[in-house]
Design a protein that fits this description.
The chain is of the alpha/beta class. It contains eleven helices and eight strands. It has one domain: Uracil-DNA Glycosylase, subunit E (3-Layer(aba) Sandwich), CATH 3.40.470. Helix 6 packs parallel to helix 7, helix 7 packs across helix 8 and helix 9 crosses helix 10.
Amino acid sequence: MIPLSFSAVCAMLGYHTGSRMVLARGNGVQDTTFAVIKRTKLFAKQVETLRFSCDCHIYNPLDYAWPMHEAYLSAYASKPVKTLLVGMNPGPFGMAQTGVPFGEIGAVKTFLKLSQPIGKPPTEHPARPILGLETKRSEVSGKRLWGLMEEHYETAEAFSQEMAIYNYCPLVFMQRTKTAKNLTPDKLAKGERLALQTICDAYLGDIITLLDPAFLIGVGVYAHQMLEKVNRGDERRIVSSILHPSPGNPQANKGWDEKAAAVFRDLGIW
């Protein structure tokens, strides 16, 4: 599915490109918050229509944690930015709990300063209950990524003037085993994977159109590949990647923050 133009996205969402809510082309200022939120609500509903054959519990934090995700979008991820960072999908101790991409509990509370009610998915894996802001377990990936943002920008408001962080896929797949092993989207059955990717590609393309970043940065190999595909060779944007900060990635366990910062400096982002 080909991403739409800005005017097409606006038309789809019921806007006119000259309207105050969407665009002020004359001075280069875009107010996209309402459009991003409405498009994300549609995205949340679209992925709910999919069916998967994996023996998994499937969590959709865009559904049960929507108030928190909407608050995150409104405050930090719904205006034009220089750089868009994209991860693969939520982690069980990050966005699955908080509704925020890479949403490590400490970062959500102290750096982003977000607090909204978080519900529960229809069914939960006994080993992965949703505790929301009461969760005690810190997600390493989110702590590293948001920690780097805090170190560089000092405040979340300053961060949001230049960057936004999203996930490509909003769903969490946890196998029905005692350990609730995570099943990543790239491991789904082919037909189901392609159906999911079609919806995710269209959403990501529309978010790129709305936020209009100059740099598209994949957090990890998979997200980088999806960005390359969705960008379709558009030379107006630079597509690159940083190491995924997961502790499961051996290269990330020593000096990840400096390695990521070096990429941003080399590209001219920082």
